[in-house]
Design a protein that fits this description.
homodimer, Arc Repressor Mutant, subunit A, 100 residues, globular, 15% strand, alpha+beta
Chain lengths: 100, 100
């Protein structure tokens, strides 16, 4: 599995973060990550196909919200909550709160 | 001038609000409104044509972020900040803070 790109948090723009979160499925993924303590190894419980989920995870990763690391035959998904809070204080946490 | 539609704040979804704010021009409009105390009568200082600005104002209005009222030959633009804060606490205020 090739290495995945993750933007430096300083290079992430607020509109790209908001755009990534402006979708029910992606909000659900981020909420499930937060509820799982920030890390999910394996699958998310969302009503979409694997390929659609894969697209959503890519959008979240490219917006700096998600760190994805291969671990053997699965992927570790980590919410970049503290980095995001340092960059845009209160934005992700209030969105998570409002979406729950 | 025909009356403009404004959604009831309870009917507004979080993804539609985030989508409306996921744009540099619309963020600028909302920030200029906040800096002006919530109300702007007349024009915004944004580097787009009148018709493009008109589109952006419509997106903000339909997402419940903006109340637009005709006043004689101009329009009064009001940020629905307190309604939005009651519906999604901290979301708009933290985005405004992060975008300034």
């Amino acid at each position: 599995m090739r290495a995945l790109n993750h933007p430096d948090i300083s290079a992430v723009s607020l509109p790209s973060v908001l755009n990534a979160l402006a979708d029910e499925i992606r909000l659900t993924v981020v909420r499930q990550l937060a509820e799982a303590g920030g890390v999910v190894c394996g699958q998310f419980d969302v009503p979409v196909s694997m390929s659609t989920l894969s697209h959503h995870l890519k959008v979240l990763r490219e917006a700096g919200l998600l760190r994805v690391t291969p671990e053997g035959s699965f992927r570790r998904h980590e919410l970049r909550l503290s980095e995001m809070e340092a960059r845009f204080p209160g934005v992700l946490s209030s969105i998570l709160q409002a979406s729950s």
